[in-house]
Amino acid sequence: MATSTPYQVSVPVTTYEAPGAVVGQNATDTVGFYGGAGSVQLSSPAQAALPSNGGMGYVTQYASSQTPSAVSANTVAEQSITVNGVAATDLVFVNKPTAQAGLLVLAPRVSAANTVKLVFGNNTGGSITPTGSEVYQITAIASNIQLSATLTPAAVAASSVSEQIFTCTGVYPGMVIQVNKPTTQAGLGIASARVVANNQIAIQFVNCTASPITPTAGEVYTVLGATGLAAIDQEMLFGVNVGTLAQVAANTTAEQTVTVNGLLATDVVIGVSKPTAQAGLGIVGWRVSAANTLAITFSNNTGAGITPTGSEVYNVAILRLAPLALVSVTTAPLIPIAVSANTTAEQTFTVSGLTAGTPVIVNKPTVTSGLCIAGARVSATNTLAITYANLTGASITPPAEVYTVGYSANAAISTGCFFLQAISQLFNASVGLTSAIRAALVAMNIIPGA
Hints:
It contains two helices and 25 strands. The chain is mostly beta strands and 450 residues long. Among the domains are: 191 residues, no CATH class; 85 residues, Beta Barrel (Elongation Factor Tu (Ef-tu), domain 3), CATH 2.40.30. The strands form seven sheets. It has a seven-stranded antiparallel beta sheet. It has a three-stranded antiparallel beta sheet with strand order 2-5-4, with no helix packed on it.
């Protein structure tokens, strides 16, 4: 019988002497609306209360030319490089610009201010020298954007890959993660990591030696867990190595141009700061003269020519009309081919949105016995190159799977330069919370989701 009032999902207090009705008795009861099949209660660390002090942090990308020394056979060893500007508390990830057979590029770390430790593995019977004068992409994540976990891993067998699962509060499926171990142990390294479930991560330890190695107990590992890191400010800072500049003639001004990869034609230069003063020489103007080109006007008010000091790193403040995401996260179905015994092999895949030479993190969704990811890079536009390492005596074919990929939308920067931009812990937590609420509403069919 038709009625002018809606049907109520409730009961009067007097009927059962209860205040209303409950839909679902526990988290495993399915609940749905508008004809939907219903869903169990969805939970995620993203649903946690937002921090009251969501301070800003920074993501900084460096381009540093390095010539590492040889890596001995069947070992893992770290090498120190100087990267001015890196804080002692930063988390880092590093992309080597090329792959070399038998060489593993493992998770790095920061050992002190301005000092990054590159960690290489060699699972062959001969020494390998990383190619000299290559430009490595080094990305530093500020401490207030990181997660951490105190871990006591189990022993890692000789010549093997060992995946171990740990609690790390704050991670959840859909995140891309990067892990830094606070110390390096000879022969041992971290190949990659992945999110297993809410508040759980899996870390792959690699032992390239002929003896078992037990990772140091009770160490505090730092973890980047992100579904994306969006820029919150139109202002950004470039550190620009100006190289060799021309002499500025007496009693005149002269504009000189410097290549700055990643500078957009629409960027507005707010200011340029030279790190040292030179008597009689001043900077009186600046502009973006074309994409990737910074023009600086020098003034010389003396009676003799003055040459600006070479290879100084100028701080250049930029206003960008539409800032790009510092880290974007996507998923990609990949179908690898076989990896031969006791070596490494780089394989390329098409992944839309990638820019050649830019930073990238790759998380494989499952563990494949004896196999690990030992390096990744963006080798060309929309092309992801992954180096697989096989530490066994037989060929291994990685399964076809959906990988999680974290990448930068910004262009690769010039050698000796850096790029810094602010992000907000509170803003990114808000995005995560909104996405978690949306997922729950869609699962219950309260909203269609599109």
